[in-house]
Amino acid sequence: MSKKEEIILPNGVNKEDFLKAISEIEKIVGTKWVFKTKEDLDLYRDAYSPYWDELEEPIPSLAIAPKKVEEIQEIVRIANKYTLPIFPISTGKNLGYGSSAPNNRGDVVIDLKRMNKIIEVNDKRNYCILEPGVSYFDLYEYCEKNNLNVIMDIPDPGWGSPVGNSLDHGWGYTYGQYRDHFGAHCGMEVVLANGEVMRTAMGALPGSKTFAENKYGYGPYLDGLFSQSNFGIVTKMGFWMMPKPEHYTLAVLTVPKRDDLIPLVEIMNYLEDSSIIGWPLYRSPLNPEYGKPMNPELKSYLTSKNGKPDIDKIQDYAIRNDIPYWQIDIPVYGNKDSVEANINYIKQRFTKAIDGAKVKVIEDYDLPLTKKQAKSLKHKVTLGIPNLEIFWLSTRGENFGPKDGHVWFSPIIPRDGKELLKCQEIYIDTFHELGMESMITPFSHPRTWMYRAFCFMIGFANSRTDKEKNEQMRKVYTTMVKVAAKHGWGDYRAAPPFQDAVSGVYNFNNNILKRFTQELKDTIDPNGILAPGRGGIWPKRLRGDKNA
Amino acid sequence: MLKNMKTVLFVSVLAATSLLASNSTDYTKGKQVFDKWCVHCHGIGMPATNALRIVYKETNISPVLEQRKDLDAEFVKFIVRHGRYSMPFFRKTEINDEQLKNLALYLSTKNKK
């Protein structure tokens, strides 16, 4: 906030109306749950904001924490009366993609953390129904305390919200059908921009007994409208859960050559799409452990061919030092016999097709796990055990200074080895053209949560002290969006400052997708009060340049 | 006079006992806050502990928060509300002021008892 700025106002609202609105809202939720001091509002900044301390940084003018759906309905009615832009968050932990901050400076945050009821968990029909403030930690604790035989597919940070994560198209770590968190949801309750409550699919049938079991009910499927968008405030969602397996085995596949990735991916796709394996974690052992320096000889080969990597020398280094080029961790679920049979089949498939391929079992457990087993599990997320261990990637390493956070650039590319290698090349070229050290190497791996595509991510560091560094990062990010789009790759998710750029490249047929969603926006939310700009969708009154 | 003094003494002891009991309850509540919000990064072997191990490697300061003897209550409160490097700050709907006070009490007194 600039020193001259006494109070942040919502976009398009004068101070007098704003104060009236606050007074009316306080009557609905109680003064305790309306946050309006600078000290309290600073807690709604994005700790990983690429605009930290700049005038564009999205700091809210007000934050409201309702407890009930009826309170949200009233808030929405007041927002319409004063044209107050309101921005809902669930647990507010979408770090790297916006955290608990709104899209725009001055938007009013509706903090749904207090709406934290676990409405139902059914471990016979394998589903749950949750409010937005429930975290993965909360749900796990509930299931374990009640000895329920189900697991929720989870993302890396366990303090996130199943509702919020799925609405931002988050992904997880078990079987493909559960890893797609939005795809694994079933049924929604939404407060619309006019304050009415709508239930989708089976929920639209009063007294329905299958809210969280049958996705479609009758008629058009509307749920997709409420993800990465601004058409309503989701207050309940159902999710399909996975029954706990009887047995779990983690195998590790290694292959010696870079090009082995091509047949490897084809076989892995077959195994995954046949539900023989869970989430395959692709890595390259050529990468040093986090925070450790890269071997100097290997590092020298990253720029030894006219400033670009020398692939032959890198490959030769890997062979000489007996370092596999790729390593894939492969979890297998089932009963003991079926898991053993599948592991043998996996070994056979890879060793037959790829010279030098090796498959080794490193974890083999009956469930339930003992506490010791659960604690030492290599990938806790593959059995739905929430944690925050992923934050190793932003913490201080022996070779790195502390980071203030990260911002994800997350383009989707085909699940194809050749395409991944091409993508490495294009990114390396782009960094080269920008005159920067490349964050991508010829052994950078794909992310594999999306079970029908790869994501080839870059985690850009942001700063809370160095504005120039943030400006540079924003430039590189937006360049990358354009470069990726030119090659047919588009981001699946983005932090608010980049949502216009990302949605802007989804522009087939003169931006028909954007024009269609805008037409919907103007009809459903004529005052443009709900999360303006979220997902690149702006209401008429605020389009201006941002629609360019 | 003696009777009055005894009464005063009795009331004082009662108040001190009640204060101790209240502190003890707050301390336990503080540990609960730690277990809900902090231990996932600041527990043994967790990312923040590993990072602090590098920060404190030349000192006798423990990287494990629950083993620290030098933590000040106000410092704990400040870090929770302002964050530090990649640690984000926490909203009052996550850790309210009362819970934060208890957390600070827990971490600042745990190893001074």
From TrEMBL, chain A:
Keywords: FAD, Flavoprotein. PROSITE patterns: FAD_PCMH (PS51387). The keyword DNA damage does not apply. One of its GO terms (molecular function) is FAD binding. One of its GO terms (biological process) is lactate catabolic process. Residues 56-244 form the FAD-binding PCMH-type domain. It comes from the Bacteria. The keyword Flavoprotein applies. SUPFAM superfamilies: FAD-binding/transporter-associated domain-like, FAD-linked oxidases, C-terminal domain. This is FAD/FMN-containing dehydrogenase.
Automatic annotation (TrEMBL), chain B:
GO terms for molecular function: electron transfer activity; heme binding; metal ion binding. The keyword Secreted does not apply. Keywords: Heme, Iron, Metal-binding, Signal. Residues 25-111 form the Cytochrome c domain. Residues 1-21 form the signal peptide. The keyword Iron applies. This is Cytochrome c. It comes from Malaciobacter molluscorum LMG 25693.
